[in-house]
Amino acid sequence: MNIIAWLLLGLLAGAIAKAIYPGSQGGGILSTIILGIIGAFVGGSLYTLLTTGTLQLAATGLSIPGLLVAVLGAMVAIFLWGLMTRRAA
Description:
Subcellular location: Cell membrane
Organism: Drouetiella hepatica Uher 2000/2452
Main location: membrane
Distance between the termini: 37 Å
Mean pLDDT: 78
Largest sheet: none
Protein name: GlsB/YeaQ/YmgE family stress response membrane protein
Number of domains: 1
Membrane topology: Multi-pass membrane protein
Number of helices: 3
């Protein structure tokens, strides 16, 4: 997948996850893209683990099922980021 598709998937997944996730997350467009890209990797890796039983670093593709997995992964990333920043504060 080329870099533009990764950025587009990250932006979409991060924006949807931030809209769905309760509370205020803050951050701008760059943090939304980064959380979405991390979410694509987290969601893709968890999906691969659940379907094949092996843990691999895999990202989702730019499709509707890939976007759903990336949004779920971005929500996990938002949750983990919230845990890390609450402990630091």
